[in-house]
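User: Um, any thoughts?
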Amino acid sequence: MEALKTLALFVATAVAEIVGCYLPYLWLKEGRSAWLLVPAALSLALFAWMLSLHPTAAGRVYAAYGGVYIGVAILWLWAVDKVTPSASDWIGVAVCFIGMAIIMFGPREAAR
């Protein structure tokens, strides 16, 4: 159950980060309203806060989170950008998820 909670928190964190970066992209590249920067800033603050909710060392959380971020970004590519991911995209996501699982849930030596 703890693994599912961790994964769900990583996914929510990734969505917050992607939204926080996508909204300024819309403003800068597609001429949308600068008001999009307000929810973007809030989303990035939420992203930073959610990363702090994990009960393990920050460096480990950041490393493992990166793998989940990649998976969520590929889903964003598909759902929002309407670009179908390639087989190599999905293989890359699988490799990243395996790496995330090893980092977060692998055995550890006792702390010194």
